[in-house]
UniProtKB/TrEMBL annotation:
Protein's UniProt name: SMI1/KNR4 family protein
Provenance organism: Nannocystis punicea
Domain Knr4/Smi1-like: 34-184
Amino acid sequence: MGATPTFRARFEAMVACLRAHPQVEVYEVVIGPPASEVDLREAEEAVGSPLPPALREFYGAHDGVFLEWGLRGREYASRTVPFGWPDERQPPGCINLLPVRKAMSTSWRADRHVGPIQPQDLAAMFGAMLEPEPPVRVVCVDHYSRCKHGDLIFGPEPVMMVSDDYGADMGSSDCVTFSTYLDMTLAIFGADRYYCGLGNGWTRAPQFMPAWTSPPDLDRTVAWMAENTGGG
């Protein structure tokens, strides 16, 4: 069944851990109501592909999940509107798992949120050229940063990756299932999924990561944020 059946309980436990930390300030938490079967079916029709079972299950339990937090005592120039588009200099801790109708859209590439993924990119991810190709190759599921986001790549078994550089970089992230993506996101407390998770920095070819095994460590995450993220 993967990670999704216990996601809400684990998410709420993570938020409680954040609220208890003396260096952390939690700004906003939103858990959407379950998506309807009509919502799910119409989302799949919009992109012309079925949703992975774990993603469908996630939306069937909560149609969007949002969290934003930062370091206590720091001022940030902007806050993210839940299920909206992050701006520059937002608080560094953000989970923005979009509602299914917003995520399963054909407009991501036109809106420049997702870069152009080519047939050869799909072949590299899935081991062969896809025939037929999926009608929509990629959508944004977790818009946690202005220039980085968790994207779903459609194929025989769709995978998640983290696009960098406003979605133009499709080659410096490892790939995971949606369930593993959730595991990672919770384990790093919504910190940057590229630098703290799947990014390989162009030092090697992308790989499929079958599981997330690094245990949660909020003190380490807070220390990384203090050193690598700014504020006003």
